[in-house]
């Protein structure tokens, strides 16, 4: 690419060189100028110039030489000492937020994605949209306060929510929480932050999180099943999230609309009447009774499992994933993985692997954090000029 650049492309060439150098630095520990020259393939004067600029922005710091294997800095070496540099991950921070029906969860991390703080707060299911957003802002403020991080130091925020979310962050359909359908969640939250805010469906973020740090590491064709009162799913195809044209891909919970007799409150009933109230505590009781040998509860659980498998099988037949990760009511599902595997083998042409989610209750917030980290990396390694100035890193 560089050999086709003209004199007018010097600024582009500088951006390319800076991106290459920063990527090499961001890989991990402190490195020398000589190592950077070797890692990037750039000339020493070019690397020196790039490093000088990165130090000025606060993204890179010069550090003392780390101890050598014998514990003595520079032992056995002569001549001018090497200069060592590191990426300043603490130059900025990112947030991953889950706005759930029953709780708000926020995770704070540095620019390398290392978690430096988190906070969780239960909320009432009956909260209206304004009250829920107020709770979100309060939990964010608490996380930042405890970590001693300024709101101005945030580079990106990822947010997960139940429902169908369009690319601008509007909840097109969200029946789980009052006042959520039609809410421009992106616009509302962007008023609270001076950085990019990305809104995404919770099951989609769970799929991203498990692929990043959970049960789906190394698998690029993945279905994550959020086994809740209305099951949903997120899918990765070739390692990339598949949202669908309008963001509604994976909404397998809508399949119950094909027949009212297969709604969760009927499937999980142990009395012949619809389960009321239909909430996670009531479902947990049914699953617990089934594990303890209660025959009626076992029948109810079997009905629910059959319906779940049929929904998942439809998605498996459509995209043929390598792996299905099951989350949501993980504590109650660990005993049904084998039946899931067996039934998927009967209902599909090629049975995928089936695994329990590894990230537990933080899976959605971790997926939101990964989306925020992707946004940061896009800023850090951008070659083309951004359409808007990103938040400046602070030294």
UniProtKB/TrEMBL annotation:
InterPro entries, sorted? ATPase_NBD, ROK, WH-like_DNA-bd_sf, WH_DNA-bd_sf
Q: Name one Pfam family in it.
A: ROK
Give the superkingdom in one word: Bacteria
| Family affiliation | Belongs to the ROK (NagC/XylR) family.
Q: What is the name attached to this protein's record?
A: ROK family protein
Q: Which organism is it from?
A: Kitasatospora purpeofusca
What does the record give as the organism's lineage? Bacteria, Bacillati, Actinomycetota, Actinomycetes, Kitasatosporales
């Amino acid at each position: 690419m560089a050999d086709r650049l003209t004199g007018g492309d010097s600024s582009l060439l500088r951006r390319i060189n800076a991106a290459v150098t920063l990527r090499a630095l961001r890989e991990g520990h402190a490195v020398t100028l000589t190592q950077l020259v070797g890692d990037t393939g750039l000339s020493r004067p070019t690397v020196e110039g790039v490093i000088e600029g990165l130090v000025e922005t606060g993204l890179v710091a010069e550090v003392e030489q780390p101890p050598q294997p014998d514990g003595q800095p520079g032992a056995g070496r002569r001549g001018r000492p090497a200069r060592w540099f590191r990426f300043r991950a603490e130059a900025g921070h990112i947030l991953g937020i889950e706005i759930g029906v029953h709780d708000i969860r926020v995770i704070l991390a540095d620019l390398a994605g290392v978690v430096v703080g988190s906070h969780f707060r239960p909320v009432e299911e009956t909260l209206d949209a304004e009250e829920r957003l107020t709770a979100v802002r309060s939990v964010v403020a608490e996380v930042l306060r405890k970590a001693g991080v300024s709101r101005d130091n945030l580079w990106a925020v990822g947010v997960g929510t139940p429902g169908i979310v369009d690319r601008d962050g509007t909840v097109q359909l969200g029946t789980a929480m009052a006042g959520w359908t039609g809410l421009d969640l992106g616009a509302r939250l962007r008023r609270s932050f001076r950085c990019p805010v990305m809104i995404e469906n919770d099951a989609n973020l769970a799929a991203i999180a498990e692929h990043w740090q959970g049960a789906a590491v190394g698998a690029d064709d993945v279905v994550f099943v959020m086994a809740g009162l209305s099951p949903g799913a997120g899918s990765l195809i070739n390692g990339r999230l598949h949202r669908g044209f309008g963001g509604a891909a994976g909404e397998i919970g809508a399949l119950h609309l094909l027949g009212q007799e297969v709604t969760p409150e009927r499937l999980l009933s142990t009395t012949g009447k619809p389960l009321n109230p239909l909430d996670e505590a009531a479902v947990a009781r049914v699953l617990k009774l089934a594990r303890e040998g209660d025959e009626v509860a076992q029948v109810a659980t079997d009905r629910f499992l059959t319906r779940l498998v049929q929904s998942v099988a439809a998605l498996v037949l459509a995209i043929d994933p390598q792996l299905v990760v099951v989350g949501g009511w993980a504590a109650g599902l660990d005993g049904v993985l084998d039946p899931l595997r067996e039934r998927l083998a009967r209902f599909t042409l090629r049975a995928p692997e089936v695994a329990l989610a590894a990230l537990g209750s933080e899976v959605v917030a971790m997926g939101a954090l990964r989306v925020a980290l992707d946004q940061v990396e896009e800023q850090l390694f951008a070659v083309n000029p951004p359409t808007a100035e990103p938040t400046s890193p602070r030294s």
